[in-house]
Amino acid sequence: MASSPSSIHFSFFLLLLIVFFPFSFSIEFNYPTVFNFGDSNSDTGIRIAAGLEEINPPYGETYFLRPSGRFSDGRLIIDFLMDEMDMPFLGAYLDSVGAPSFQKGCNFAAAGSTILPASPTSVSPFSFGIQISQFLRFKARVTELLAKGNKFKKYIPQLDSFNQGLYMFDIGQNDLAGAFYSKTDDQVIASIPIILLEFESGIRKLYEQGARRFWIHNTGPLGCLPQNIAFFGKDPSKLDELGCVSSHNRAARLLNLQLHALCTKLQAEFSNASITYVDVFSIKFDLIANYSRYGFEHPIAACCGYGGPPLNYDSRVGCGQTKTLNGNTVSANVCNDTTEYINWDGIHYTEAANLHVSSQILTGKYSDPPFADKMPFLLKLKF
């Protein structure tokens, strides 16, 4: 197990954030509840609660000091966003142990989930459509319980919270990433309109249920994930100037372009709704391209992995695991300082990288419509 980052290095990391985000006022979101839909980028424990797999140390070691159901060493982007709204971390929908409180919202995101309906070979059964159905069940059950009085008031949201709440989305990465294993580049690109039709259908269902405030993250540069570089980047001609898989990032950009167009269309159609499109791709790509500027030392290598430079990733040995390869016992160990790395386990980001991305999101300049001129931001760092 790695020790905590040195105080000197971490102080330098915080100083960089202050230098690059010198804002003086705090955003006031004022949402009574938050409902989140997505994949492992925002899963706070559904996949674990469903019994689909376990997460063992060193996951969670940086902030929670134990595995927390999150696929990172610490907090996710959604955790930092909830923190900025002065709200508790979102509980996973299926987590029934310990009397979880859903008074301030609920998280339906599940690792491995896709927008398109799951197939028998899918990593996760909790596709976007299933997550929407789970929300509808959640709302119906809350309505039933509220009709019985105030007995459950401190555990569930009030009915008007469904209309006034914020609906957040970070999903679509797995639709593209998974497709590249069985389809040509052109076939993956051709599937994007179908993916977004399914996403639009889910948004419309929520709108019909009274949802009016939508916060939609686009897809990040999946071609820069060590997992994809290791599998699809064996031929150097397939890589771009950053060492990322060109085809994967091209697909992500095209999906994002069409997703942005969809959000613009819905902004015009839902005149009484607020639809915010957030360009997470640009934030993450800039972070990888200019990693040293932001205090990082390793842009694409996994902090927790096996194999050493340049990727420190081997799909046969997951983070924290010990396996026998070619007669030798090997382990995927954690790095000495997680704040030096952008990538955590070959697929997901470190808490330090998630903090950076969150900080940039909340400047408002990566959003459409932007809010930087109206809502300057001061991140409340709670390490």
From TrEMBL:
<comment type="similarity">
    <text>Belongs to the 'GDSL' lipolytic enzyme family.</text>
</comment>
<dbReference type="InterPro" id="IPR036514">
    <property type="entry name" value="SGNH_hydro_sf"/>
</dbReference>
<dbReference type="GO" id="GO:0016788">
    <property type="term" value="F:hydrolase activity, acting on ester bonds"/>
</dbReference>
<protein>
    <submittedName>
        <fullName>GDSL esterase/lipase At1g54790</fullName>
    </submittedName>
</protein>
<dbReference type="InterPro" id="IPR001087">
    <property type="entry name" value="GDSL"/>
</dbReference>
<keyword id="KW-0732">Signal</keyword>
<dbReference type="InterPro" id="IPR035669">
    <property type="entry name" value="SGNH_plant_lipase-like"/>
</dbReference>
<feature type="signal peptide">
    <location>
        <begin position="1"/>
        <end position="26"/>
    </location>
</feature>
<dbReference type="Pfam" id="PF00657">
    <property type="entry name" value="Lipase_GDSL"/>
</dbReference>
<keyword id="KW-0325">Glycoprotein</keyword>
<keyword id="KW-0378">Hydrolase</keyword>
